[in-house]
TrEMBL record, chain B:
The keyword Translocase applies. One of its GO terms (molecular function) is ATP binding. Probably part of an ABC transporter complex. Responsible for energy coupling to the transport system. Part of an ABC transporter complex. Responsible for energy coupling to the transport system. Its main location: membrane. The lineage of its organism: Bacteria, Bacillati, Actinomycetota, Actinomycetes, Streptosporangiales. Keywords: ATP-binding, Cell membrane, Membrane, Nucleotide-binding, Translocase, Transport. PANTHER family: ENERGY-COUPLING FACTOR TRANSPORTER ATP-BINDING PROTEIN ECFA1, HEAVY METAL TRANSPORTER. Belongs to the ABC transporter superfamily. It comes from Actinocorallia aurantiaca. This is ABC transporter ATP-binding protein. The keyword Nucleotide-binding applies. CDD domains: ABC_cobalt_CbiO_domain1 (cd03225). Residues 5-238 form the ABC transporter domain.
């Protein structure tokens, strides 16, 4: 799992998510099957459940809207726990929550088993425009530098007695942010000079090769293939049911 | 004597009209170690950026190992940038790749070096600055002194004709400063070192140039220049408190 080439893993995750999204929402058992598949992958990769659970929280702000759906949507109403809700809305909320969570968990598993640097290599391998991957690579490299700079500015503000109390202080924070932007911009220029000095001509040299063998492709096809089978079965069930 | 660097009549004005260089002449022989001294705003950085053709467009010529710097000739420019190894002041500007190994490989890979030869160059360059053990680390996880040494390795991997260092001792603690000096002394390469650290210049460079007001104001043995109080004062150069210029032996 950890050793599979990054581009295989990215494609496998994408395939899995597509299969999940294509599944009719009424077939609740199918989503249970997907969850089991992911649990299997996590077990294979020896990713602890707690690790996944902590990171799933990232989706909370995004699915907040889903909880409003049962109250806002129109159509036939049902009573749940003494509250009147829209049936359509309930299904809609379930749909977003289930598919969203499965997608997030799949991405977490991908991110946990793949070094960010290698992940970017995989993306590059999948012919994503090099400009985008270069930007991501630089973000990865300079994120810490910028955060450190921001922390120093905060210390400098605090050292002169500044403490953000209410909205009026936003003006000062905005100025700091502006200064930070300028510093980053200037650093960008200096980095570009350093790159030119070492013969950069617009293309990053490809230094690490990530080639996949047939066996590795086959191994990474297991998850999306299983998910596709579940999705297909769910559609069959849906049609016979109608 | 073989010549590494030959600059004649170099003049340059920035697009906003500020004239930074007023005709600089300098010749540096192969294997020499030369310090470039001068007050802030003397045009040192402008001068250095001309050596590999990043700045151009003014009067005069620069030749590196006999090859003229011509910004229109892309192929020659690539060779110029191989021959001139520029080490920038802030190693965070110089080290932009995710790992040390990739960063050191960046320069030679741009020159078309690949495979085993590339690995050999990376290993050799890191070995020369004593940083082979951090090859797989991320630059941001190294100490400042280590980053400075890796920055030197990134240009050594290009096997340059001349190593140009911008303030190599700045922000280093005394031990890192001494270690870097030992590394620089061990390298068999022409060095041009831009610095305000006069004792460092005295230790490392037998010869010094003083760039002041956009021209070379003095050129001679470093110890002789540093001992010339009148000359030093005229160009806003001062020795640190307590430092006594050693007598040339």
């Amino acid at each position: 799992m950890h050793g599979l080439p990054p581009h295989c893993k990215i494609l496998a995750t994408l395939g899995f998510v597509l299969a999940v999204v294509a599944t009719p929402r009424e077939q609740i058992w199918a989503f249970a099957a997907y969850a089991l598949l992911l649990a299997g992958v996590a077990a294979c990769a020896r990713v602890p459940l707690g690790h996944v659970a902590k990171r799933v929280l990232i989706e909370v702000p995004f699915v907040g809207f889903a909880f409003l759906l049962p109250f806002l949507a129109t159509g036939p109403r049902v009573e749940v726990l003494g509250l009147e809700m829209s049936q359509n809305g309930l299904w809609g909320a379930w749909n977003i929550l289930a598919k969203g969570t499965l997608g997030v968990i799949a991405s977490i598993l991908l991110a946990t088993t793949t070094d960010p640097r290698v992940l970017l290599l995989g993306v590059e391998r999948l012919r994503v425009p090099p400009l985008l991957t270069q930007i991501a690579t630089f973000m990865f490299r300079y994120g810490d530098v910028v955060v450190e700079e921001m922390r120093r500015m905060k210390t400098a503000r605090a050292a002169r007695g500044f403490e953000a109390r209410d909205l009026r202080d936003a003006r000062i924070l905005a100025r700091s942010l502006g200064a930070l932007f300028l510093r980053c911009f200037e650093r960008g220029e200096r980095v570009h000079l350093a790159m030119l000095s070492r013969g950069y001509d617009g293309r990053m040299p490809v230094l690490l090769r990530a080639d996949a063998s047939g066996g590795q492709w086959a191994a990474s096809a297991i998850l999306p293939a299983a998910a596709a089978a579940v999705s297909l079965a769910a559609w069959m069930a849906q049609w016979t049911f109608l | 004597m073989d010549v590494s660097l030959e600059v004649s009549g170099l003049a340059y004005a920035y697009p906003d009209g500020t004239q930074a260089l007023f005709g600089v002449d300098a010749v540096i022989g192969k294997g020499e170690r030369v310090a470039l001294l001068g007050p802030n705003g003397a045009g040192k950085t402008t001068f250095v950026l001309h050596l590999n053709g990043i700045l151009h467009g003014g009067a005069g010529t620069v030749r590196v190992g006999g090859l003229p710097v011509d910004p229109r000739d892309k192929k020659a420019l690539k060779e110029i940038r191989r021959r001139v190894g520029l080490v920038f002041q802030d190693p965070d500007d110089q080290l932009f790749m995710p790992t040390v190994r990739e960063d050191v490989a960046f320069g030679p890979a741009n020159l078309g070096v690949r495979g085993a030869e590339l690995e050999r160059r990376v290993a050799a360059a890191l070995e020369r600055v004593g940083m082979a053990h951090v090859a797989d680390r991320a630059p941001q996880h190294l100490s400042f002194g280590q980053r400075r040494r890796v920055a030197v390795a990134t240009v050594l991997a290009m096997e340059p004709e001349i190593l140009v260092l911008d303030e190599p001792s700045s922000n280093l603690d005394p031990a890192s400063r001494r270690e870097l000096a030992e590394i620089l002394l061990s390298l068999d390469v022409t060095v041009l070192m831009v610095t305000h650290d006069l004792p460092y210049a005295a230790q490392l460079c037998p010869r010094a140039l003083i760039l002041s007001g956009g021209v070379i104001a003095a050129d001679g043995p470093t110890l002789g220049l540093l001992a010339d109080e009148e000359l030093m004062a005229a160009h806003r150069l001062e020795l640190p408190y307590g430092f006594v210029v050693p007598q040339p032996s």
